[in-house]
Amino acid sequence: MKLNCEFTDMGTCLEFQFRTIRTLLLLASLLLAVSCRAPEQFRGMSDEEASEAEGLLELSTYVISDVMGEFYAVKQKGLYGAVELERIRKEIPWWPEENVSNIYIHDKVEEKGYGFLTQPMIDKKRGTYVQINPRTRNFISEIMCLVRETHEGKLYEYWIVKAWGESIPAVGIYFFVTVAESLDKPRIFLVADTRYIPEFKISDSYTMRFPESDLAVLYNLQAWRFPSAFPESDLEDSQVILTRNREYVATPFEPRNRPVLQQKLTPEEAKERLNLNEI
Questions:
Q1: pTM
Q2: How far apart are CA 9 and CA 249, in angstroms?
Q3: Based on the domain organization, do 262 and 216 belong to the same domain?
Q4: Is 12 helix (H, G, I), strand (E, B) or coil?
Q5: Where in the chain does DSSP place strands (E)?
Q6: Residue 5 lies in a domain
Q7: Which of these, 29, 84, 122, 177, is most buried using a 10 Å CB contact count?
Q8: What's the number of CA atoms in the CB half-sphere (13 Å) around residue 74?
Q9: pLDDT, tens digit, for every residue of 187-225?
Q10: What is the tens place of the pLDDT at every residue in 185-197?
Q11: Domain count, the chain
Q12: Is residue 3 part of a domain?
């Protein structure tokens, strides 16, 4: 692999090479793990579909490692404005003015030849910090940042990537922990796996833990759809629904029943119907 560097600072160049190589190695190990474990949801794919799914996974890691830091830099500097908004509205007329900086993510994904299911949602108030949904002809990817913490001046994030297919509803889920110097800097992958990472030790004084009691986060995780990814956890035994009042309720999950979003239920109605003792 040849890496061309145009940096004037050799230290910056070496850091870029290290980050790129580490990302590629983690991605390679992740794809190898997927092919070796061959979980049920990956069976029945054609070679074309498998290649398409792998390409979408590569795009997702690129968005996490490179595009997100670049996006925050663009947003902080106010580089996207009326011109970009006018351009994007020729393609997507309903694009909100307050999300003009999000167009940068749209542009970078389209540069790679991919489309979008919905516009990127960044810095949401609850449940996920980032939600990006690129798509191909046969697959949709959900890129989500579920945890964001700072420790000793560095930014640590917990990411998941979910993949959905037209003919295969739940294709797979992938877990990542990243570190960055700040929001507007590149993410370095510390760990990547096809199985749930409940916690990851950063140092003797700091361990990143997944917030298993946060129903808004669990609602986005959707562990019940990916039971093979949670072999040593009971998260897949319950699902989280969003009620009409925009409140999250945990309910027992029956494998024979597909999850249903019961938005017309209030928390009290959900407790009565589902025989729950507590929310």
A1: 0.79
A2: 52
A3: no
A4: helix
A5: 115-116, 121-122, 130-132, 134-135, 139-151, 154-165, 172-180, 188-193, 199-203, 206-209, 238-242, 248-252
A6: no
A7: 177
A8: 20
A9: 999 999 989 999 999 999 999 999 999 999 999 999 998
A10: 999 999 999 899 9
A11: 2
A12: no
